[in-house]
Structures are given as structure tokens and as C-alpha cells.
Write a structure and sequence with these properties.
The complex is a heterodimer of chains A (about 170) and B (about 550).
Chain A: H1 8-24, H2 32-47, H3 50-69, H4 81-89, H5 95-107, H6 112-118
Chain B: E1 24-25, E2 34-38, H1 42-53, E3 58-61, H2 76-83, E4 89-92, H3 96-100, H4 133-137, H5 152-166, H6 181-192, E5 198-199, H7 238-244, E6 248-251, E7 255-261, E8 267-273, E9 279-289, H8 292-301, E10 327-334, E11 350-351, E12 367-371, H9 376-382, H10 390-397, E13 402-409, E14 418-426, E15 432-437, H11 442-460, E16 466-470, E17 505-507, H12 522-541
Parallel strand pairs in B: 2-3, 2-9, 3-6, 4-15, 9-17
Antiparallel strand pairs in B: 1-6, 5-11, 7-8, 8-9, 10-13, 10-16, 11-12, 12-13, 14-15
The chains are: A mainly alpha (about 170), B alpha/beta (about 550).
């Protein structure tokens, strides 16, 4: 039985948590840094809430117990991607995993390194926007019209069959 | 009434914005009976400017702070924490937002300028049939459809003025914005599937300098406030100009908590708490409520009195009902080449071909398709809330090669879609929080499915490798909860927005909308406010209020 009065969640738990995050949010291009920072954000939130700490400690221990029970002879952190993902599918609605995802989906993708890895350039105003930095550099399609259509077709606001049967009255 | 000295110098509006204070502009006494405006967004900010420009003193009570352009953040979550309305609220009912975001039914702004601070900028007008939905759509099961008490012809001159105030592109000689990358994908797809009525606007951001504000530098972050001020908002145009008249007393950090009336039933004051929690009473000749479509009915419901036991101006029982949030959905398409959808003006791309009444499509009303982009932070949070695993990360990994659009269409008013007071959840002042109960009408479901299928065709026509459908997120367009009606039993306010039951009380925001139409609502809210200001000024001049 894990003991939430000790700091075990800060050490063993962190390793399990990093593995969990990589299995739940697999990005082959990402190094460990973003996952570690996300794990730390989750641990920081748990440090602020006794309930979250209890739930998280027990949940992470459960992952190890399930890994062992599945005959993997390993801790969760040692599972391969497929096995880790399958195990997580089995605890999708568990409170600790919902809690982890709630923080992870914000923290992992609110990370400057992740933004660079995904090809997002972040704050732009201080750099003069994208006016001279590629706002229109897409070259694999023709440059389209930007003015409103002024050709012969008319937009029919109301289809003939949808005209009211009685003349519209002044409301 | 005393007036702070304001130097009528030649700096731009943005440079002349005042520094943070407890109040800005004129000092109006609490016992002076003036026009009291609750909220400073598209409705309230416009009213403040239009009325003070006509010489009428106004007190503006704004719940949020006065953020300046330099305060805005090019960072999605930081900006969200800075300006989103995060006071206690609840979402309930069968819609998915109630499950995914149970405390965030709406994504609106709590700051001077209201939600014009984070609006994207699309400014289509309503169509004539959309103001006569009862006539055109008939009586639809489960819906509570009503014609507006005003017509498009009556509104047209005010649309002209609103477009000039906002500086809408493609209108009144304003040039179009150029095509950004996301628009190139969107417009080419549109052309391929046979759409004709697409363009980079009309859009409320300057393509060239206009009205003292600069041209767009294509910096994105439309939803985070615009640091460059190329985008119109009441925080950079109407509110500073109202303050410069010397007749506007703007009080940020002021949450209206009750509207009172005199023995004859006429609105006579607004009670509000300041940022320290102290309660004040501001006397009023006229009260205009423009707190967005959740706070406005909440304030009326909190203002129940012996004369109005079910909430102020609620003899019809319609206060808080007929809540509309627009039919929405987003589509993100992945390509084999870069798009960089986040570069440039977020929503400067509009397709109007589906914004029409043609029931052969299987639903009444219509919708627009508009370009949309989120950064990775918000995309992760909203693309499929709660989702994880390889399917989720595949979408995120394609970020650089992704194009996005938004479906925005008319949802039908339903009496049961409703803002009420949640007696078991209190805000920071101990006041009952608003609960928003919502369920899609079958017409909404049919329209959304149609929109998704058309968006898929559009993107597949230009080579999409995959498309992802994103469900509606917390509502940015909140409408209809104090609707206009010809007859007092059908709605809350008359053709001028004045409450049927309470002389001197006006509804001045999107709450008045009898139907929601397909168009983004800001332009129409501004047009209605300009029209309402004329009416109020005329009544006050005649001594009638």
C-alpha cells in the first residue's frame, strides 16, 4: 500500500507519471523535457490538494499492480508503448487518470518547446506580427480572390419553395 | 457634475487610453439621475459613446478591469486567465459543454470593452428572412419561434453606421484584407466545391489605417485582445471617445447586483458592488442592461420585487428563456504541406453560400463557414475535450500542416434552453450564480451535420489527408434571453429594447435578439445600440425618459 505521507510520489511516482504521459500523449518527436515538466505540474497540483495527492498516489500504484497482474513482470514504467496504452485504456475513467489528463492537456501543450516542435511560433506582436514573416507564404495553392463575388450568380436568400404561403406581414 | 480634465490632443485613441484608475472620465454623483449602463461591450460601449456624444451624461458600470492594449497577452491561457469571465457559473443539460466544461458555459470577456475585446471580427448582416423566422419557418415542434418587432429595412441605416464605426472591410470603401495561409486553403476549397460567396470579410479589422487606428500587422491572437489596435473594439474606440466628451463616468470593477424601481414601477437606480465588495446605489433616469446574454437575465432575475415577483420585467416568464448559443462546430484538416493557420487575422475568411433558407437541405435557417485557428494550447483543450491517445496526438502532431474553419449558424430558440439562478452555487459576492441549461434542437443537429459534410468536401477538394470534427466549445455567441417582441406576453422588451413591464429599463445587448440568425452577432448588437441611443436621446429630450 503506498504511503501518501511520504514523498514517494515525488520520486517513483514521477517516473511512472512521465511514462504514463508519454503513453497517453505519444509524440515521437518530443524529448523527455516537456513530459517531465508536465509531470511536475501534476505533482505541484497534487501538493496543493490532499485529495488529489491521495488519488494520484493510489492511482499510480494501481498501474504497477495491474502491470504485475497482467503477467508483465514489470512496473508500469517498464512497459512498452502498446502495453502501456492498453493498460491506460482500462483505467480511462479512473479519477486519477481524469485528473492527470485535465492538467496534462493544458500543461503539455502550453510549453514553448512543444510549440516549436509542433511548428507554432508563439507570441508575434513584438516581432511585428506575421506581415513580413510568412502570413501568406503558402505556395502550394493558387492565390484566391479576396473580394466579394461580383459575377452573374445571385445568392438566393430564400428558396422558391420556402417562400411563405401567405404574404409576410409586418410583425 | 464635475469633469476630469481631458486634453484634446492629437494622439491616437489607443495612446490616449487612461491609466488604471477606480473610475475614468467624469465624476457623477451617486444621487444624480443619469443614464446608467451596465456593461461596456458591443452594446454598452456603443450606447455610452452615442449618448454622451449627444450631450447625455452616462455612468457605465463594468464588472471587469480596464485592460489596455499593452496589457493584452499573446498567450492563450495567460490571456484567458486575464480577461475571461471566470466568476462562478454552471452549465447543465444534455449538451456536451455541461460535461466537459461544467463551470464554463460561455467564453466571454470580463473587462472594459466586454467581448469586443476578444471577438474575431466577422461582420455579416442579418438577412431579411432571419428577422421574420415565425413567418418563414412556421411553428416548429420544440421551438419558440417569433418574428422580430423590427424589420431589416428599419435596421439598414444603423447597419451602415455600425459598419462605419467598426470599419468593416469590403464596406463603405474599406479595402479587403489580404489572403492569409488559412484563407488560401479555405477559399480554394470553396471555389472547388462550387461556392461563390466567399471573401476575406466583411471584417472588423483595418486593412489600411482608418479612424485613428493602424492597419493589421497580421499578428493573429484575435481572441486575446489586439495589441496593435487594428481590430475594432469598444475598448479602443467608443469607450475612450465617450470619456473624452466629459460626460461619461466609467467605473470598472463594478458588478451590478440589482435594478430597483420606484413606486410607479419605473426603473430608478442600480445597486452594484465595487471591487472591494462595498455596495453602492447609482440613481438612474434610464437603465440600460448590456451584460451579455447570461449576466443580463441574471441581473433581472436577481431584481425581483413585490411588483415583479418572478424577476424584473418578467411578466411574460421569458426572462432567461430562449437562450441561443449559435449552431457551431469546427473542422480541422491535415495536409501534406505546411499551412501555418495561426499566422494572420484569425477569422478573415467568410463563406456565405449556406447562409440562406432552403429546407431541401433538411433544416430551416442557414450557416456561415469562417476561417478559424487556435494555437496548440487551445487546440489541445478544445479539439475533442477529454480525448487522449494516438488518435489525439496525430491531430496535434499535424499542427503545422493544419487548416481550420468554424461553422456558425442559426440555432432555434427553445423555452427550455434557459438561464436561471443556481441557488446552490454562489459567486464571490455570495450571489446566486447563473446556470445555463441547453439542449440542441433536432434542427441544430441536422444543420451541424450538413456543415460538417460541406466542410469535409471543401477540404478534401484541396487534398486534405484527414479531417477532424470538433464539437461546440463554451459559447462565444450568447443570445436571446430577454427577447424583443411585439406583444408583452411573448417577450421581454419592445421594438426599442425597452422592457414591456418597466418604463426606463432597456435591454441593450444580444439578449434582445428574437432569433439568432446565422451571422456573428456583434455588428447587429452595435447597430441596435446606435438605434436605441437615438430613441433614448429623443425620449429624454422630450422629458419622457
Amino acid at each position: 500500500m503506498p504511503d501518501p505521507t511520504t514523498s514517494s510520489v515525488e520520486t517513483d511516482g514521477r517516473r511512472t507519471l512521465v511514462r504514463l504521459l508519454r503513453a497517453a500523449y505519444p509524440h515521437p518527436r518530443f524529448p523527455d523535457g516537456p513530459y517531465e515538466r508536465t509531470a511536475d505540474a501534476i505533482l505541484a497540483q497534487a501538493a496543493d490538494s490532499l485529495w488529489h495527492r491521495l488519488v494520484l498516489t493510489e492511482g499510480l500504484a494501481t498501474l504497477d499492480a495491474r502491470a504485475a497482474a497482467a503477467g508483465e513482470q514489470a512496473a508500469f514504467a517498464d512497459l512498452d508503448d502498446e502495453a502501456a496504452l492498453a493498460l491506460l485504456r482500462g483505467v480511462e475513467d479512473a479519477e486519477f487518470f481524469v485528473l492527470i489528463r485535465g492538467v496534462a492537456v493544458v500543461s503539455l501543450y502550453d510549453d514553448a518547446e512543444v510549440h516549436r516542435l509542433l511548428g507554432y511560433e508563439g507570441p508575434s506582436f513584438e516581432q511585428g506580427g506575421y506581415l513580413h514573416r510568412g502570413f501568406d507564404d503558402l505556395d502550394w495553392l493558387p492565390t484566391p480572390r479576396i473580394e466579394e463575388y461580383d459575377g452573374p450568380d445571385q445568392l438566393v436568400e430564400v428558396a422558391p419553395d420556402d417562400e411563405p404561403t401567405t404574404a409576410p406581414t409586418q410583425a | 457634475m464635475t469633469t476630469d480634465h481631458v486634453d484634446p490632443d492629437q494622439r491616437s485613441d489607443a495612446e490616449r487610453l487612461p491609466t488604471r484608475q477606480d473610475h475614468y472620465g467624469a465624476s457623477i454623483g451617486h444621487d444624480e439621475e443619469v443614464v446608467v449602463i451596465v456593461g461596456s461591450g458591443a452594446g454598452g460601449g456603443t450606447l455610452a459613446y452615442e449618448l454622451t456624444a449627444k450631450g447625455i451624461a452616462c455612468v457605465v458600470l463594468e464588472a471587469g478591469p480596464y485592460l489596455m492594449p499593452e496589457d493584452y497577452e499573446n498567450d492563450e491561457w495567460a490571456s484567458f486567465q486575464q480577461m475571461a469571465w471566470l466568476d462562478a457559473r454552471t452549465a447543465s443539460g444534455p449538451y456536451r459543454v455541461a460535461r466537459d466544461f461544467p463551470n464554463l458555459p460561455a467564453w466571454v470577456v470580463k473587462a472594459v470593452g466586454g467581448s469586443t475585446t476578444h471577438w474575431s471580427g466577422a461582420t455579416p448582416r442579418f438577412r431579411a428572412y432571419e428577422l421574420k423566422t415565425r413567418t418563414y419557418y412556421g411553428d416548429i415542434d420544440g421551438a419558440n419561434i417569433l418574428d422580430w418587432p423590427i424589420t431589416l429595412e428599419e435596421l439598414a441605416p444603423y447597419y451602415d453606421r455600425a459598419e462605419r464605426a467598426i470599419g468593416s472591410t469590403h464596406r463603405h470603401g474599406r479595402p479587403p484584407l489580404p489572403a492569409n495561409n488559412n484563407y488560401k486553403v479555405f477559399a480554394n476549397g470553396a471555389e472547388q466545391v462550387g461556392y461563390r460567396f466567399y471573401a476575406t470579410g466583411p471584417y472588423g479589422t483595418n486593412a489600411e489605417p482608418y479612424d485613428g487606428r493602424p492597419a493589421s500587422i497580421q499578428d493573429g491572437f484575435n481572441f486575446q485582445g489586439d495589441k496593435s489596435t487594428a481590430k475594432w473594439s469598444t475598448a479602443v474606440r467608443e469607450v475612450p471617445r465617450a470619456l473624452r466628451t466629459g460626460r461619461c463616468d466609467l467605473r470598472p470593477g463594478s458588478q451590478a447586483v440589482q435594478i430597483t424601481h420606484d413606486a410607479r414601477g419605473r426603473a430608478n437606480a442600480v445597486l452594484y458592488v465595487d471591487k472591494d465588495g462595498s455596495l453602492h446605489r447609482q440613481a438612474a433616469a434610464v437603465v440600460c442592461v448590456a451584460g451579455n446574454s447570461i449576466e443580463t437575465p441574471r441581473l433581472l432575475l436577481m431584481s425581483a420585487s413585490a411588483l415583479h415577483p418572478d424577476g424584473l420585467a418578467n411578466s411574460s416568464g421569458q426572462v432567461g428563456r430562449n437562450y441561443m448559443r449559435h449552431l457551431t462546430g469546427s473542422v480541422y484538416a491535415r495536409f501534406d504541406k505546411p499551412v501555418h493557420m495561426y499566422r494572420g487575422e484569425t477569422m478573415a475568411g467568410i463563406i456565405a453560400d449556406e447562409a440562406r433558407q432552403d429546407t431541401s437541405r433538411g433544416f430551416v435557417g442557414g450557416y456561415y463557414l469562417e476561417t478559424l485557428s487556435l494555437g496548440p494550447a487551445f487546440l489541445a483543450a478544445f479539439i475533442d475535450p477529454g480525448e487522449w491517445g494516438p488518435g489525439f496526438t496525430e491531430v496535434m502532431d499535424a499542427y503545422e500542416n493544419t487548416a481550420g474553419l468554424w461553422i456558425v449558424g442559426e440555432d432555434l430558440p427553445q423555452e427550455t434552453n434557459r438561464v436561471t439562478l443556481n441557488a446552490s452555487v454562489k459567486d464571490q459576492w455570495g450571489l446566486p450564480a447563473a446556470d445555463v441549461w441547453f439542449q440542441d434542437h433536432p434542427n441544430d443537429v441536422a444543420m451541424r451535420a450538413h456543415g460538417f459534410s460541406r466542410a469535409d468536401m471543401l477540404y478534401e477538394a484541396v487534398g486534405a489527408l484527414g479531417v477532424h470534427h470538433t464539437p461546440p466549445y463554451p459559447a462565444t455567441h450568447n443570445l436571446g434571453t430577454c427577447r424583443l417582441s411585439e406583444r408583452a406576453e411573448d417577450g421581454v422588451a419592445d421594438r426599442w429594447g425597452q422592457a414591456h413591464d418597466v418604463p426606463g429599463l432597456f435591454i441593450s445587448d444580444g439578449s434582445q435578439m428574437t432569433s439568432g440568425a446565422a451571422a456573428n452577432p456583434t455588428l447587429t448588437i452595435v447597430a441596435l445600440a446606435i438605434r436605441q441611443a437615438e430613441y433614448i436621446a429623443d425620449r429624454l429630450a422630450k422629458g419622457a425618459g
